[in-house]
Amino acid sequence: MGETSDSLYLGVPFRPYLSYVPGDLQEELIYLKTKVFQHLDALCQTKGTCFRPVDLQRNKQERGDHENTSDLQLKISLDLIDRSSFFICLLGHNYGQCLPEENGSQSLFEVGRNSYIAAKNGYPWVLEDEYRTCSQTELEITKAAFIDNNRSCFFYFKDCTPPDTEDKNSPEMCNFLNTLSTQSQRERQRLRDLKRRIINHCLPVRFFKSLHELEEMIKADWEGIICAFHEDPKHLISGWQDSFDQHYHVRHARALRDRFVPSAPTTEILNALNKFLYPVTHNAKPGTHSRNPGAHFTCDLDLNDSEKSILLICGERGCGKSTLAAWWLRSFCRQNPDVPVIFHFCGTSTSSTDLRSMLRQCTAQLRRAHYGDFLDWDDSLEDVIEFIHLHRVVQAFTAAVNLGPCILLVDGIDLLTETLGLSKQEVKELRWLPDPLPPNCKMIITATFTDLTYKSLTSRTDVKVLSCPHLSNPSVLDSILCKHMSLPYKELPASVLQRVAHKKNFHLPAFLALIGTELRTCGVLRKNEDEAELLKEYIEADSIAELWVKVIHRWVQDYSRTAPTENISSCKVTEAQTSTASLRDDLSGWVWDTLCLIHVSRAGLTEPEVLALLEDLGYCGDLKVQALEWARLRSAFWPWVQEKDNGLLTITHQSLSQAINLLLHGTEGQNSYHQILAAFFQKSSLELCSWARKTEEIPWHLKQTGSFKELHGFLSHPATVEFLSSSLKQYPQMTIDVVHYWTILRERGFDPVTSFQNLMAQTCQRLNDVHPPDHSSLWKLSLFSSKVLLCLGEMQQAEKLLLQADQIFQKDMELDSDSMRSLLKVQHMLAELYVQMHLPKDTEMYCHKGLEMAQSLTGAHLDSTEVKLIVEQLLCRLCVALLEDERLYAVPWLFKEISSVRYKSGHPCAEGTAMLLKAFHKLSLCELKTAEKCFQTAFASRRRWYGHDHPLVAEVEEQLADLWARAQTNTEWTQRKMVELYRHVISVKETEAQMLQLSTMQHGLAVVLMKLGKVLLHSCSRVDRREGLDLLQRAADIRIHLLGLEHPLTRDLDLVSNPDFVGQRKHVLEDIWSTSNNKLSLGRPTTSFKESPSGLQQSSSKLCITRPTTKLPKSFSTQIASNCNQDETLKRPWTAFQVSVFGPQNDISTLLRTENAGRFDRRQSLTRSTRSLSQADVSCRRKL
C-alpha cells in the first residue's frame, strides 16, 4: 500500500554508532558485545532487521591498521555518524587524547593529522578554536548531538562516586584512586564540562554502577525503540518473509526519494502521471464495504476518460526513472489517501525479481485493500497447487485488480528473471500481464528501452510511453552533485562545474551521482592537483560503464593493500569490450574480492560473512582486514553498496552490477566465486550463518556451478529437511525454490521419492534410539515431503508417506502439544488428499481423527487460531461426506458448528463456502428455490474473490445451470441463461484442459458438452439443434479417447448422435442426463458422472497402498447422531466439490504432469496409450 507517514520507520537496520574513549570501560564493552547486543540483535532478527553497532575501536589494540588508514579515523567516524540515525555513547573516568592549548608534542602528531584530514575533507569546524583541542570522543559527540539534531542519542555515564568503604586499601578504592592519578587536572575538567554540557542539552542520560545496571538500562531503552519502529504485523501477507519484503520496498522507496532533485522536465513527467491517473482519482469516491466499512470506495468510471491503462516510463539505465517514481509515489499517496497504490520495486530482495512472488504479493495487498484485514488460514493443498501453475496466479491477480479502483507501480520490470515454469525470455515477453487491464486499474511501469520488456510493452495498444527527460540546466546538475556529495562544508571544484554542462553523459543523474559520491572520498590523502586530474579522467568517460571501471580501479588502488598501482587513465571501455581482459588483470586484492563476493551472492552478504570469507581467501595475519579499513571502504562505496534491513550488503544500482559483470565476462571468475560461497556457507556455523541463509544461498550456488550431486546431497540432508519442514511456511519464496531445485534434479536422474523415503526411514530409526521419542519431527517431515511430492505430481507416494506417519500414532501414546499439532496437520492433510482422490469413506475417517485430536488440544487448553481454522475446514469436509452417505439429519448441526462464534472465520470466502454447502443441503431436500438463492450468493462471492474465469467459479455456474435444467423451467430467460452459463463453463474447462493436459479435465469437459448439447436439442431453432448434435459428437469423441468404444456411456452418446436412432434419442438423453447429474460437483473439474465397475472404480483395486480400515470413532458418530432425531431422507451421492470455510481448494490432479497422469490417477483404466486412442478415434468416426 502507499506510504501514509514519513515518520513511519519500517524496516530500518539498527546500526548505532558506538562512541567511547579508547582504553576506557573495557569490561563494560566486552559485556555489551557478548551479551546485550546479541540479545537485541536476536530480537531484531524476529522482526526482519538487525542490531549491529558500529565500533571503529575494536581492533585498536592489534595495531594492524595501515599507517594511512589510522590518519583517517576521525574523518571516517564523522562520515559514519552522518549516515547513522542512532548514537550510543559510554563515558567513564577518562577523557581521551587531545591537543594541548599550546603547540603540541610529536606524540600527538596522529591526533593533529586526523583533525587536519577531517577538516580538509568536509569537516572544517574541527579546527575551529572551540573544537581544536577536543578529544576525538568529544568531536564525535559534538557532531552527533550538538551540530546535528536529526538522530537519537543515548548516553550512559559510569557513576564516578568513590566506593562507599572505609578501607582505603580496598581493591575498589585503589582502582578508583589509580584512575584519578593518571589524569591531569585539565583532562578531569574537560570531562566534567563535557558531561555537564550533555546534561544541559536535555539529552537522555543514564548513570550506572554495575554491569547489571548497564544491561537493564540499554535493554529497556532499545527494546522500546525496536518494538516502536517494528511493530509485529497483525496479519501477515502470506508468510513472514513477504511482510519483510513489503517493508524493504517501503524503505527502498524512501531512499530513492531522498536522492530526487526536482527540475522542469521532471515536473512535466509528474504532471503527465497525474493526468494519466485522473480517471481513477476523479471517479473513486469514498464508500462503504461490507467487510471493511469506511475504508473502501466505489468507482463510476467512464471508459472514455482514458483509453490507455499502462503508462511506461522508459529511458537508459541511470536516467532517474526509479527516483522519479518514488517521488511521485509519496506525493500521490498524500493527495489521494483513499486510492490503493500497490508498489513493487524489483531488485530490493530475492523474491522481488520472481514473477510468481510479485503477483502473489500484489494480489494479497489488493485483497487486503478492498476487504480489510482478515485472519490467515492454512490453505492446505491450495498453497501447494496455486503457485505451480502460473495461470492460476495470474487469474488471482486479475480478480484482485477487478475488486475496485487501484494503481499499480512496478519499478524496474526489466529486472524480472526466470521463475518456476517460465524462462527469463518468457517472463520478459509479458504474456502473463492481463490484456487489457480492467478499466478501474492503472499501471505505471519503468523499464530500460534496451530490454525485451520494452518491446513487449510497446506492442500493446493500451500502453502510453513517456521517455525520461534529459537534464541540461546547470543549476540542476550542480544540485545533484551536491546532494550526493552531501558535505555541506565542501565546495565543488570549479573544474568539475565547468565541464559538467559540456559532456553528454552528464544528463544522466546516475553519472552525476557517482561523481558526487566520489568527491566525498577520492581527494583524501591526495593533493589538490592529483584530485583534479582524477576528476578529469572521470569526466572524460564515454559511458557510465567506463566510469564505473575507473572508480573500481580507484577503490582497489586506494584501499586494497595488495592492489597494483597502475594509472587508471589507461582504462577504457569500448562497446566491443575489447579491453576488458587487460582490465581484469589489474584487479586484485580484498576490495575487488569483496565486490565480487557481494555481486555473485544471491541475496547479499552480511559484514561478518564478508570478513570471514576474506579470511578464508587468505586475508589473515598481517593481511587481515581491520575495522578501520573496512569502514573506509564502506564509506567509499556508499550508497552504491548498502546494508538492507536484515544486515545484508547488496548492490543497489544495476549499473555497478553490469560493470562487475563486464569485468568478469569471459572468465571462470564468476564460477569460482560461486564455488567459494557454496563451500563457505556449507562449513559455516549457525552463529555466523543461519539455516535460512544456508538454504537461500547454498542450493543457488550449486545450481549455478552445475554441481547437481552436491545439490541433491544438501537438499536431502536431514538437517536441511528438518529446517525446511518447520520453516517453509514463513518463506514462500523458499517453497518455489525447493520445488524448482527438485524439478531440476529429477530431470537429471535423482529420484525425490527415494530420497524422501530414505529420510523417513532414517528419522524412524533415530526415534527408536531416543527415549522418549519426539514424533513431531517425523510428522513435520512427512508433511514437508508430501507437499513437495504433490508439487512434483507424486500423489500416490505422498499418500504413502502421510499414512506411514499417521500409523505410528497409538491411542496410549503420550504426546506433547507440538506433537499433537503436527499429528493434527498430518490427519488434516490426509483428509484433504482423499477429497482430491474422491475417496469419501477415507475422507470421513480422517476428518473424525483430526476432530478428535483437535478436541484433545482444546480440552488441554492448547488450541490456537490455527487449530480452530483446521477444525473449521474438517467440519466442512465432514459435511460433504455426510451428504454423500445419506445422513442429512446431521448436516444442520454441522452448519451450526461451522457458523458458530467459536469457528467463525473472517475470510471473505467463508460466506460463499457456507452458502454453497447450504445449497447442496437444500437441493437434497428438494427445496429448489432456496438452493437457487444459495447458489447465486456463492457464485457472486466466488466470482469477486477468484475472478470470472476461475474454475471454481465455473463450477458454481454449472451447478446453477443444472438446477434450472432439473427444475425444467421453460422460460426464455432461463433457457438463454442456461446456455450462457454452460458456454462459459465450457470455455473455462477448455482453458484448464489445454493448460494442464489432464484426463480428468477432459472428463469434466465432456460432461458439460453433453449437458449443453441436451439443452440445445430441445430448442426450437434448427441451428441450435444442429449445434447440440455437434456438441454431443464432441463429447462422444472425448469419451472414446478416455473409455473406449465399448463403454456403456460411449454407446449411449453414439445413439444420441446417430441419425438412425431418432426415435430413441429422447429416452437415451433422459438416461444420460440422470447419469451425468448423479454427482454434484463441489470442487475442481473432475469426472462428474458415475462410472461402471469396469470403468473408473475398477482401478481402485489395482493400487498397492494399504490404507487403514475405515472405522469411524464412536465419540463423533454418537455426537453427530445425538444432535438431530430426523430420519434419513434423500440419498445424495459423494460430491467431488471441494469446499472449506477458508475458500475452495484446488484439484490435486492439476499437479500431475501429462506423461504421468495415468500413473497416479485413481481411474487408471481410463487412460489409454496414444496409439490406441488414435485408433479408437478413427473407428468411432467411421461408425458415426
Describe this structure in words.
By secondary structure, this protein is mainly alpha-helical. Helix content is 55%, strand content 6%. The protein is built from 50 helices and 14 strands. It has a five-stranded parallel β-sheet with strand order 8-9-10-7-11, with helices on both faces. It has a four-stranded parallel β-sheet with strand order 1-2-3-4. A hairpin with an 8-residue loop joins strand 5 and strand 6 (296-299). Helix 3 packs across helix 4, helix 18 (474-485) packs across helix 20 and helix 45 (1022-1043) packs antiparallel against helix 50 (1170-1183). The protein is globular and about 110 Å long. The protein starts with 16 loop residues before the first strand and ends with a helix. The model is unreliable at 3-11, 287-305, 563-583, 1060-1065, 1075-1104 and 1124-1184 (pLDDT under 50). InterPro entries: DCAF12 (IPR051191), NPHP3-like_N (IPR056884), P-loop_NTPase (IPR027417), TPR-like_helical_dom_sf (IPR011990). It comes from Cirrhinus molitorella. Keywords: Repeat. Residues 304-446 form the Nephrocystin 3-like N-terminal domain. This is Nephrocystin 3-like N-terminal domain-containing protein.
